[in-house]
Amino acid sequence: MPPRKPPRAVVRRAPRQQRAHDTVAIILEAAQQILRAHGLPGFNTNRIAERAGVSVGSLYGYFPNKQSILLALARRLLAEDREAFLAALAAADEATVDPIRRLVRVLLARHAHDAPVRRVLLGVYMGAGLAGDDAHHIAQLTEAVASHPQGPRAARALAPIQLFVIARAVLGVARALTDARDGPALPMQAVEDEAVKLVNAYLLAATPSDAGGNAAANSVNSASSSARMPSSP
């Protein structure tokens, strides 16, 4: 039996005019407000349409169901993450904050903000079979860091496998902030400081890759490519 293909189209009708784009944006903003206020159990198209000021019929003209709205919100969230991260990277040559701290700070702040909503959206996103898209998204950001002359890689020549490991390590810390539910809130400054120590310690210990390291990197990249879906968030 062939594997289930993940949903490719989030929006039923592609908005061609500015008014349609505005309507989609209003619907998505209303949907996020409903999700924030009522959680997933209270998330339904009637509430969204009422909050957005549109008819349910108009909403269904753009989104076939609430699942498609959740996926659109997840993709919007990941796009905002990417924009914030790339903006921080573009400003990495400023002397006020070192590049590593700047990138870690943005990554942690994005994952700590509005954590209940992010947790739901990423759960729906992964549950829809889009883990390959997520891997592609992370690979794009990692490549942006790798190619930037002032990025963390500039401090030490890293092999692709080393860059993969440290990127995933810091991302794991960030996503743990999203997943945290119980217990006292972690002090963000302390988390940032420890994550920066993690990156710096790894960079200090990293050695230039050998042939084996390159082979391992090729293996990782090949596995990532095979899991990648046609579209990216």
UniProtKB/TrEMBL annotation:
Residues 21-81 form the HTH tetR-type domain. PROSITE patterns: HTH_TETR_2. The keyword DNA-binding applies. Gene3D superfamilies: Tetracycline Repressor, domain 2. Residues 44-63 bind DNA. It comes from the Bacteria. GO terms for molecular function: DNA-binding transcription factor activity; transcription cis-regulatory region binding. SUPFAM superfamilies: Homeodomain-like. Pfam families: TetR_N (PF00440). InterPro entries: Homeodomain-like_sf, HTH-type_TetR-like_transc_reg, HTH_TetR. Keywords: DNA-binding. Residues 210-227 have a biased composition (Low complexity). Residues 210-233 are annotated as: Disordered. PANTHER family: HTH-TYPE TRANSCRIPTIONAL REGULATOR PKSA (PTHR30055:SF226), HTH-TYPE TRANSCRIPTIONAL REGULATOR RUTR (PTHR30055). This is TetR family transcriptional regulator. It comes from Pseudacidovorax intermedius.
